[in-house]
Every structure is written in structure tokens, then in C-alpha cells.
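During the second year of the project, the team shifted from modelling isolated chains to modelling whole assemblies. The rationale, set out in the original proposal, was that interfaces cannot be judged from single-chain predictions alone. As a representative example for this report, we include one of the complexes processed in the last quarter. Its constituent sequences, exactly as entered into the pipeline, are reproduced here:
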Amino acid sequence: MRMWAQSHLCQKPQRVTSVLAAAFALIFLILGASQSASALPAFARKYGLRCSACHESWPMLNFFGQKFKDNGYQLMNDRDAPIWQNPGYWPVTFRIVPLWHRVSTNKVRVDAGDGSGESKISSSGFDLTGLDFHTGGTLEKNISFYVLPSSDATGSFHFETVMARLDNVFGSPWLNVKLGKFELDNLLSEKRPLTLTGNGGIYQLYHFMPVGSGNIFGQMGDNQLGVEVMGHSLNDRTRYSAALLSSNDGSVGLPYGANSYSGFFTASQAFDAGRLGVQRLGFYAMVGEAPTTWLTDGGPNAAIAGSGAGNKGYSREGFVGQFYLGQHFDLTVVTQHGSDSAWFGQGYGDLIDGVATLNNTPGTVLPAGSRNPTWNGVLFEPHYVYNPQLIFIGRYETIRMSQQSTPGTPSNLGNITSYTVGYRYNPFMTSRAGLAWHTEYNWFHQDGTSPVSNTNLTSSELLMGFDFDF
Amino acid sequence: MRFIGAILFTAMLGLVFAAGFTPRASAQDAPDVGPTPRLVVKPMESHIGNITGHAAAAKSDYRRYCAGCHGDLGDANGENAVWLDPKPRDFTIATFKCRSTLTGTLPTDEDLYNTIQRGITNSNMPVWNTFTRQQRADLVAYIKIFSPRWEKEKAGDPIKVPAEPPVTIDSIAHGKLLFTKLECWKCHGPAGKGDGPSAGTLTDSKDNPIRPYNFALGKDDSRFKCGNTNEDIYKIFMTGVDGTPMPSFADVIQPNDAWDLVHFLRTLQINRHGKENEVLSAAHGAIPPYVDKNPPPAAAPADNKSPGGGH
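Output from the structure prediction step:
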């Protein structure tokens, strides 16, 4: 469920100050009114636990919720098989957010309006996110499933997640096998964010592509099709996962490579740090190949689905740290070093509406001096949990190109900086349903990517709404 | 200004809705409870090894993880309690099932700590082993705020558990004899399937129906409420499961007898691979009648003399 409102406005500084002042005033009002919080209600209803047992603040998991997920949505308390469920139990949850937001982008391509061909556009109003239908649980003890039909805000549906999983194979938590379309085992999950805005609702680090790149395949924030093996210790302190994925960014119907695969690997270890809490350190790596060559039918660029060949490589790797500093404050840090083949850097790879704008047919050569584009990024996401009902969220992301594909390209082209702040307040806390009053502000900046003048692009979004699920 | 006004209007609208819904939601969740008195967090402590737990530090964790079942006041009236079977523990009466202390006494801090870490099988109490040791110790201290017993009484002394004797077919046979003699079968059933003639009539100390343990369920990973080792089963005999019809046999059987009973009960776990079932298999799956090789001397008539005795 995303807003996908990627274009927003550039606030005047004093306006930003006023907005933040208003938001903070509201925060303090709510602090005074705070009483008692909520989660994926289908699981909460099944097990009779409050949402807060598994969620730091829903949908973000805490360690107990992560262990529950790693166990295949099982508490391992001999009440996991469907035989224990009330016959009237139906494991479905829906989630949608009615909201008000104001989005603004400083430079949007326009028809000669002010002579420059670019204009600032700001708009505000009431809106909706898409709708998610979550259904998941156990088919039998140690066999679990998850199906998530998800729509955009217009009601157009797709399958965000469809997977079945064999849990605790050979009676060991170290071996679990999952097949289908699923979220990659990111320690900081993009599918469970505490943010909803167009640019703040995703992790830029998980979707970054150098300007002009044709590599859509390395988006580790998107759910992917494949098979995953993962394991963990009984208390989930030690975790690993390894996934073999089709290099198609989760698209069904084999639209891209004829024989293109990627891998995603993670491992992490948590430590008991006494009063500070549990600290976790880990790494991830996504390495793969994706096509740049297409057979065509109907013209030189009319690619035939599934005919992709000429695989080229790419990689994303980094470290993840989750640090708890007492009961109220935690900080997640994710780093990334990314690298694409020069072919992707020059725009080969992606099909847009079935068209191979660039096609690496026999004899094709790259422009002289083309290099592998590389970059480095880091993400900091602090949370302050005032109590289980109220959480304050912050995020800072920055991505810096370290090598452009084309020599002579400005070194900062495509660099991203993004700030997000917000809070979520849950007015009640039960095991039946969840409702959060959500307020968030995101400021996004990218160097040299305005559509006409190739100057800096800045956008922002303020969003408030009721995030609820039942 | 219009922009800021719109923001404030929307934000205030959200606040009014959120604040307005809260009391109604609470009232609907607990219609019979009435106004909730403010809970005073007493400065209770727990001591687990070299860790000291403090009640005040567990307030947030208790609310986040425990209160949904055990209730904000520890009275087993959380909003989920009505759906649960067995019911959650009522901390206000400070009666605990899993103890290393004699029946009727308070458990040790380690007993409560281990229960949180282990969870309780065949119930909704999960394994909370994702907590830090400090978190668990703090929660043990927090549990104590709900009952005045913790201020007036000390925890009982842990019972002494003698070393387990070897498993033999004789010890199993003796255990079987005790199983019959002590009428364990009346609740647990002749084959330990929890289907004895009294099984349907059992209630706990709060008059909630309760079922005896079914030994036949589960495989190698089968657990008992209070642990999964032979020592844990031994403790159950000797301390009883307070708040349930399962009594303590500390005054009835000797330690070696208790171990024999443990060995027999393990054979009722027919799908479990363990030394007891191996010994039973070696005996071709049949438990022979128990023959006491060291019977106590028969009581002699007053006028009889012992064979070796003189005048």
C-alpha cells in the first residue's frame, strides 16, 4: 500500500517552519491525551495477543514479532495448526488509509507556461491509499502461507505476496523453505514501514537507480518471485537467509529474461545488552544478472516477452544495525554499496511497455569509456516509543554516486537526500483491530534530475490520516 | 495562512476523533469491569543470579505483551481472557502452577523467570525468549505488585531433587504400580490420554474447567506445562500444580518412588524417542508386574523370635 505520489512541492523555509510548528503542537496535545495500542488483526485474533506484542508499532515488527514470522506465523505453543482455530475464524485483514495530504514538486515539465518549460506544482486535498487484503497463517502445523492482493488507490489489484512455506523442516528452525512471491528478508522491512508518503513510504536505498540506468531488477524493496531458504536459532538471535530469484522485479508471466536469476543473502546476530535491550548486526547482499538483449517482433524495439538474454551483472550489499538504547529509543542503520554493469548504466535492460528502447543486439558496442556506475548510501531511522500507543519516527537517507557510467557526467547527478519525520498514535490497544492517527512530513531532494533544465529536483509531502486495519 | 489553517483543522479533527473514540472502545471491550482504578507500581524487585529486576522498568513491557490476557490489574481479566482456554494466571491471588517450592508457598524468582522464558505448552502463553534477561527479571518483579502476598511472605525453599536413578524395566514397572495405586489414572486415564473417569469433572481453583495432561500427544518435542526434562516432571509430583486438582505427593511417596513414576510416565509418551521407551522396547514392549526385591520385613508376631535372635 503506497501513495506513489512521487512529485511534490518545494516549501518556502518559513512555511516549513510553520508546518512543523503546527505538527509539534499537535504532538504535544496527543501526548497529553495518550491512554492505552494495536496489529495484523487476523494473527492477533487467532492467538489472542495484542498487536503490540508483535509490533513495535504496527506494522513494524519487534523481535517477538520477527520470531513469530520466522517460525512461519507460529507461536510454537502447540496451538498453531488450524485444528485449534475457532471454526468461525477467517484469517483476513484489510488495511487502507483515508487521508489528507499536500504534495509539492519544485520543477515539473509544463508547456511553455513561464517560458522555462518547468513549473512548481503544489496540490492538496483528501485522498486514499490503496487497499491491502492480507490473509496468512498455517495450513497445517509447520506449513504456512501468505496471500496479499493489493490495489492502488484506483482499485486496480495485483498480487503483492503469494507464498507457501515449509517451516522447521526436519524439526529444525534452521531450515525453512519458502516458494512464491515474497518480501526479501530485509531486516528493515519496506513492507512494514511506519511511513506512508510517496517518497518517505519507501526506502530510497532499496530502489535506487543511477540516472539513465536500465536496471529495474535490483530493487530489493520490491517483492520478488523465487525460493528462499532461511533459518534461525530458537530465540531468533541468529538468522540467515538465501533466496534464488527470477530477475524480473516480481513481475509475473516471465516478461523479461529467458534465463536470468538473482540471489539475495542475509545473516545477522543479535546480542543481549542488558538494560539497553537487544542489539542486532547483520549484512545483506543482492547479486544477480538480468537481460539486455531482446528478440523482437513487429519492429526493432518491439521486444518479445521472455526472450531476454545477454545477461549483465549487478550487486547491492551492505550492513544493517538495529540498536536499542533503553526502552524508548531505537535506531536502525542500513548501508549500501551498489554497482551495475556498464550496460545497465547506459540504459540497456528495462522494457517500457514491452519496448526495448535500447537493445544489445549482436554487434552493439557501448559508448567509449562507459563504466560500471557505482554508488554508496546510508539510512538512519530512529524511533522514539513514548509508550506502546505513541511512536515518533524519523529517517535520513542519503545516496551518493561514486562513479557515473558516462565519463564527464556531473559526479553528483542523481544523488539523493531524503528526510522524513512523523508520529503514529493508536487511540486504543486490543487484539481485534488497529487504528493509528498518522502524521508525516517528507522532504526529498535529487541532484540534477529536473525534467528540462537538469537542475536539482525537490519535493515534499505532508500527510495526515487514519491508518486502520481489521 | 489558509494552508496552515487547513492543517490545523485536519489535525484537530483527527485528535478529536481519536480522543473521542477511546473511552467508547474501552467501555465496549470491558463492559463489566467499570472504571479502572489507577495502578500503583510498588517498588518490587526480583533477583535472578546477578540480575536485579525492578517492577517499574517492566511497566511498558507488561502493558505491551502481557496485559491483553493477564489484565492491566493482573487479575486475569484482559480483553482476550474470555476467549482463552486455559485461562490466564490471576496474579492477584499469587497462586502459581510451576514452582520448585512446596505446595501452597510462593515460587522463587527463578521459577517465574523460567516460566516466562519457557512459555506454557497447550496454552496461549508463548515462549518469550526474545526478551533480554533483564526484561524477564523486570517482569518477574512486576508480577509481584499485584498481590499483597509478596509483601507478607517469602518465597518457599526449592525442594531438593536427588540424582535420577538409572531407568530399568523394574523402575518402569514400579512406576506403573504407583500410577495405579495413587489413582493417577482416574484423571489421566489408564493409558495417560487424559481421559480418566474424573477428567470431565475437573475445575481449577477459579471453577474454570480444566483438562488433565494427555501424555500420548506430541513427539520428541512434547513438553509439559512446567518444562520438558525428567527433573521437571519430578518437581510436578513433589510440589503439585497449585490452583489445579493436581496435588503434591511430597508427603506420600519417597524420592525414588517419584523417579520410578517419572520413568513410567515417559513410556506413556508413545511417540517420543527416549531412554524409557528404549528400555521398554528391549522388554518387548511389555511392562512386567512389579516384584519388590527388597520387601520390608514382615511384622513379626509379638511372641515370635527372629531367626537369628537369641534370648
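The longest strand of chain A covers residues 312-325. The radius of gyration of chain A is 23 Å.
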